[in-house]
Amino acid sequence: MSKVQVDTIDTRSGTSTMQIGSTNTSTINIGVSGDTVNIPSGVTIANAGTATGFGGTNSGAFYVYKSSLSVANATNTVITGWSESFDLDNWFASDKYTPQSAGKYVFFYSARANNIGATARFIVSLKKNGAGLGYSAGELNIVSSSYPTAQQSFIVDMNGSSDYIELDIFHNQGGTSNFFDMFLQGYKLIT
Question: Which residues contact 56 (CB under 8 A, 6 or more apart)?
């Protein structure tokens, strides 16, 4: 292997593009372990290839939905029978999301009540390992008969092995109530 030692490499006059490597090149190394590679202010980095090894990735993304659900009065009911739109890492199963990578996850959910009566409470809760998560519940106190929507987002620490997430609905309208347009989605935050 040959070694060239210079202070500056520049293009020749009249040329605006410099190419390092050619058809015989498979890997180009810039610096060695412990070096700092400096990109000056004002420089644009344009990527036309595949960028790997930069930061992290949002992983574990999923989106599940359910068209309708009947819920008995004054009963916390875990939503079951979800349909998957996508589940990139196959961590959603048996109506629970159980990610297999430890970290912080962001979850979003929504549910809509079908003409729930006035003065009723309507609560949708994100639950971790079967227990409610503090302020993760979307709660509405209905003042007139309507079609209210409870929705919320929440960031949750997950252990990456046994922790799981599910969604729960509660109402106290007095009889069985129907809910619709429910969804639950989430992903792991970049670390």
Answer: 190, 191
